[in-house]
Design a protein that fits this description.
Layout: H1 12-23, H2 34-112, H3 115-126, H4 128-145
Length: 146
């Protein structure tokens, strides 16, 4: 058979119809020529090669999608870890800020001689619940000194 452009070969339903025509001929119908048989065979081979190429392409796509999914999962984990570090940094920063406020209040109280009020202010800066107990403790110590 002479070389024919692949675009002229049969595909899909046309190929199925040609194969059926070749096998289900009516009696008295002309026989299929060698050229026709070769054309149908070439079409079948081209269709098989095209399907193999398509399967290979689909496999490549599936592998690429799996790799992309793994990379996306890794990126999500890294982002979550970074977010956790940022939150921890903020919490530590707030804790140190409050600790510095309490130390400043304590230093001011020592300098001004009003340690009771400053102790209560320091406790309030750290924990409002403990401020009441600090005030009552200061009062009891002050009255014991008198």
């Amino acid at each position: 058979m002479r070389e024919r452009p692949e675009a002229l070969l049969l595909r899909g339903e046309e190929l199925d119809a040609a194969k059926a025509w070749g096998t289900l001929r009516k009696e008295g119908a002309p026989k299929i020529t060698e050229e026709q048989r070769a054309f149908i065979t070439a079409s079948q081979e081209a269709e098989g090669a095209r399907l193999l190429n398509e399967r290979a392409r689909l496999t490549e796509i599936a592998v690429a999608q799996a790799r992309t999914a793994r990379l996306q999962q890794r990126a999500r984990l890294i982002l979550a870890a970074m977010a956790l570090l940022v939150v921890c940094g903020i919490v530590i920063g707030i804790w140190q800020y409050r600790d510095n406020l309490a130390r400043e209040a304590q230093l001011k109280a020592r300098a001004s001689g009003k340690s009771g009020m400053c102790a209560a202010a320091m406790q309030a800066a750290l924990n409002p619940r403990e401020a009441r107990s600090a005030c009552s403790l200061f009062r009891s110590r002050s009255s014991a000194r008198l």
